[in-house]
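Re: the request from the purification team.
They wanted to know what the chain is likely to look like in 3D before they choose a buffer screen. I agreed to run a prediction and write the result into the notebook, where they can find it.
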Amino acid sequence: MKRIYLMLGVTVLSGCTVGPDYVKPDTAGVVPAAWRWQTAEPRDAVPRGEWWRVFRDGELDRLEELAVAGSPSLAAAAARVDQARAGARIRMAEWVPEVRSRAGGQREQTSGNLPTPVPVQIPAARIDSFSTGLDLSYEIDLWGKVRREVESARATADAASASYHGAMLTLTGDVAAQYFIVRASDAELDSLRRTIALREQWTGLLGEKFKAGVVAETDYARARGEVANAKAQLAEVKRQRQEASDTLALLCGVAAGGFAVPERSIGDKAPPLIPAGLPASVLERRPDVAAAERTVAARNAEIGVAKAAAFPSVRLTGSSGYLSKDVDSLLSADSQVWSLGPSVSLPFTGWAMIRFKVEAQVAAREEAVAQYRQAVLTAIRDVESGLAQVRYLGEQAEAVAEAVEASGKATELIRASYERGAVSYLDLLDAERTRLQSELASARVAAQRYLATVRLIKALGGAW
């Protein structure tokens, strides 16, 4: 009965776990009560899918798949997840008793002049000993130290997994952003090449008229200057496109020298529409919010680990095996040896050190809570900014499109007036410059609309 009572007592004590149980941090005061979103509940494990396919661009799909498969930075993030999960499994292994096998042999020379309390001469001797057996060691988790360590390790692994998804979201978002920068450059190149072709044609006509004495040399010189300026702009846009292409190569994990993106203009196609009235669950998909919340859980569990150091440590040790003076009798019954017994240790000093460690872990948890709230605020800001950018860039695109149409019509009218001699060549140059600037602005605004859509998708955690 005493043994039964002892086992029951150990079982009851084994259910004790020191330290605070985890409660999700309160974001009261961080998220406005009237805000159309809600407090985040981490749902980072929900599949996001290949969000970039909403753009319906085959080349972008190819580049995204290339980046996900070949990016060294993403591979490093995946390795960090494996490390964190292995760390959690190491902590879980502490629940299992440690058993080691051993075997050994020893030849010992004893002294013939050993100090003894009685005047008895012990002769020198050579002693052989051989042993084999098993050793067991197990620390009973009375105060939940191991449980808190496992809890912390699992939360850390979850945070690493969320960080991996964050790295993937950042990578795929950067690939899409650089891709649309390349496409914006393609639109600018198309406009500049058409402008150069028209200006060269116009310069040729002016050259013939100048030779015939119909126009002044200043008009011919200005026309040649405008062609040179357009070519200079063309070279600058080509340089910018090459830089964006090289960045794409880096993101995709391939050498820039053998990487190329076929030239194709975005045109006037609008980016996909993302609804503004999204449910609150989209914020829960943010990897940074999920990682910050899991970090709070890990820091909270570490408080219990620190507190457990102030309680008695109970360890059960035992060994069983054989010990003999020769190998032939090693495994006989008379050579069998064993031992079994618990040990209890309780710190009598170092209480201040334990208290300071607990205070340090409490402060670490408060830091993690503050960072979690900051992540929520950042997510709110990113979503609100993304929605505003998408809206106002759409309005800007409409105004720029109207400006392109108006400047093109004005250029045609002024060119006809110049041919009739009704206006000066400076008026025609101003009109052509305005038309070109409107076309370039249209290409840039189109790119900004796509970039704003990518940023909004990233702010939503990769999908909606």
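For the purification team: Residues 351-419 form the longest helix (69 residues).
Please add any questions underneath this entry.
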